[in-house]
Structure formats: structure tokens, C-alpha cells
Design goal:
globular; about 350 residues; 12 helices
């Protein structure tokens, strides 16, 4: 029973820490004078993905056996899979719930149901181009990442440096190309650490950011350990726990960030956080894996790669056609169900 209690406690701790984190990172973005969207794609994504990258680094550099080091390879593949399916799907589902609650509130006040445009997109054409750009960055990098897992040659480890370079270029373009004139200058909520200050001290912003990241990191790792313990209790093989449940747990901070920002009406930031985290997951852990492991995929990892590619192609086509709705975003979670079904015969 203690494992179930700790699982709930960790989930609550992650959610509350993410509320403080998104509050701090928005102020941090203002202090660093970065664009609004870069707060999601760079600052928030880097903060929540950094602990997972550290876990990959530890696994691939200190693993006593090749099997132990390959845990980092599994994490490098499981992260993008969970983000492109579960994270986007949960974001779409929360958007649907928020819209229905708004319609119910209007119905109670006026007695009529507000008109709902059929297939209303999540943003205008400019927003869709902005979101599609991140997917266009991610897709070719991820395809190369999967392709390298199918071949073996002497100089493959050196290619890990190219993945770090790819993220550095993405980082620079996001900071430099961020459009400042979008007309959205929302007043930020008071910093939770200094609620009475209209403009909090920089030290308070930094302390709240680092402290919440530390709690998110520790709670996420404890959450994963509880899943590892509960899986066998439920009769699940360790491989299923590692490939199905653990990636969802490690990406829980990104999911929580997205939920919080959607609740606050900042859908663009929610989607930017996920796409930015996907870029980190496609490059940094991959570079570490290539440098320190054989980077050789088995059937389960190949299947994870194919499903991730399919999910991103689906999202990219919806964005390019300006048809990304809350419902279509929710449907992205279905790809994770397809992955789970296909995993059964592979592991069998």
C-alpha cells in the first residue's frame, strides 16, 4: 500500500511544483528578455527535460553492463513517444473540458447554448506555422536518430556531437527569431515567493525556479520507482513497465505544465513547452546514447520510433492544413494505444 500512497503523493507534489515552476519561469523569461513563445520552447522545456537528460547521462556513463547502459537508450526513445502522444493528447482533452465548462456556464447564465464553430482550429494561420516549424525541426532529426539505431559502423559515436549541434542551432534560432510584436503582453501573476511585490526580486525568481526544478526532479524519480514496484504487483512484465509506464512518468512534468497553462488560457505556451521538450529529447539524450552506447535498437525500440514518427506526421499535416483542433489533438493519444497493442506480440 505504501507504493500506491507514494505514487499519489508524488503526483500531487509534481503538479504543485509545476504550478510554482511555470509561475517562476514566466518571470524568468521577462528578466532575460526572451520572447513569450521562447519561454515555453526553451526555458520551460529545458528546465523540465534537464533532469531526464541527467538520468540518461548517468545511465550511459556509469552503467556497469551494456544492458544497464541501454536503459538510457530506452529513455531517449520513450521520451519523444510519450510527448508526441500522451502529452499532446492530454492537452487536447483539457482544452475540450475547458470549452465544455465554458459552454455550461454560459448556458446557466443565458439559458442558451453558445454557438460552437465546427472544427475550430487552436490558433490562426500564424500560430499553426509557428507550431509546425517545431515539428519540422523534430521530424528529420528523429528519423536520423531511428535510422542510426538500425546500422553499425565505426564512426557512429562521433555523430552524437551532431545532435548536440542541432539543438544548439535550434536554441539560437528560437532566441533570435522569436517574434516580439505579436501584441500579446499579458500581465504576469505575482511571483508566489513574493506575492506582495508587483515586480519581484531577481534572486527570488531564480530561487523559485531552481527549487521547484529540484522538487520536480526528485518527485519524478520517486514516481518512476513506485511504478517499477507496482508493475510486478499487477502482473506486468518489467519490459512493459519500462516501455509503457516509465516514459509517461518521466514526462509527467511537461504534461503538468501543459495542463496548468491551458487552465490559465495560455494554450500557445502549453504547446510550445511540449514541442520544445521534444526537441531536447530528440537531441541531447540521443547524443549521449550515441557517444557511450552501441545505439542498437531491438524490435520494441524500432516500434516506438515508428509510432512517434506516425504521430508527428499526423500532427504536422493537421497544422499545415490549419485543422489542428482540440479533438484532433486529443486523438494523438490514440497512437500510444496502438504502440501498446503492437508491443504485446513484440515482447511475446
Amino acid at each position: 500500500m505504501i507504493h500506491y500512497v507514494l505514487l499519489i503523493v508524488c503526483a500531487v507534489a509534481i503538479y504543485l511544483s509545476c504550478e510554482w515552476f511555470v509561475n517562476a519561469v514566466e518571470w524568468l523569461g521577462q528578466r532575460l528578455n526572451v520572447g513569450k513563445m521562447a519561454v515555453g520552447t526553451i526555458l520551460a522545456a529545458f528546465g523540465t527535460a534537464l533532469p531526464e537528460s541527467v538520468v540518461t547521462l548517468v545511465a550511459v556513463t556509469t552503467g556497469a553492463t551494456p544492458e544497464a547502459r541501454n536503459i538510457g537508450v530506452g529513455a531517449a526513445m520513450g521520451g519523444p513517444l510519450a510527448l508526441s502522444t500522451i502529452a499532446y493528447g492530454v492537452t487536447g482533452f483539457v482544452l475540450l473540458l475547458k470549452r465544455r465548462r465554458h459552454e455550461s456556464a454560459v448556458r446557466e447564465e443565458t439559458g442558451t447554448t453558445p454557438a460552437r464553430p465546427a472544427g475550430q482550429a487552436l490558433g490562426d494561420e500564424k500560430d499553426m506555422r509557428r507550431l509546425a516549424k517545431d515539428q519540422k525541426w523534430f521530424l528529420p532529426i528523429f528519423v536520423v536518430k531511428v535510422a542510426l539505431g538500425l546500422v553499425a559502423f565505426a564512426y557512429k559515436p562521433v555523430l552524437g556531437l551532431l545532435f548536440f549541434t542541432a539543438y544548439a542551432v535550434y536554441f539560437w534560432r528560437e532566441i533570435r527569431a522569436e517574434d516580439q510584436g505579436d501584441g500579446e503582453h499579458e500581465e504576469l501573476e505575482p511571483l508566489k515567493l513574493q506575492r506582495g511585490a508587483a515586480s519581484p526580486a531577481t534572486w527570488a525568481v531564480v530561487v523559485q525556479t531552481l527549487a521547484t526544478l529540484a522538487v520536480i526532479f526528485l518527485a519524478s524519480q520517486l514516481f518512476v520507482r513506485q511504478l517499477d514496484a507496482i508493475g510486478p504487483m499487477l502482473g506486468l512484465p518489467s519490459e512493459v513497465t519500462a516501455l509503457l509506464l516509465s516514459p509517461v512518468a518521466t514526462e509527467l512534468p511537461e504534461v503538468m505544465n501543459a495542463v496548468i497553462w491551458v487552465r490559465q488560457g495560455k494554450t500557445k505556451l502549453a504547446l510550445a513547452n511540449i514541442s520544445g521538450a521534444m526537441m531536447i529529447q530528440a537531441t541531447v539524450p540521443s547524443g549521449l546514447g550515441l557517444l557511450f552506447t552501441t545505439w542498437k535498437f531491438d524490435g520494441a525500440l524500432i516500434w516506438a520510433g515508428l509510432i512517434t514518427i506516425a504521430a508527428i506526421v499526423y500532427l504536422l499535416l493537421s497544422m499545415r492544413a490549419h485543422r489542428l483542433t482540440a479533438g484532433r489533438l486529443t486523438a494523438a493519444a490514440g497512437f500510444y494505444g496502438v504502440f501498446a497493442l503492437g508491443l504485446v506480440p513484440i515482447l511475446g
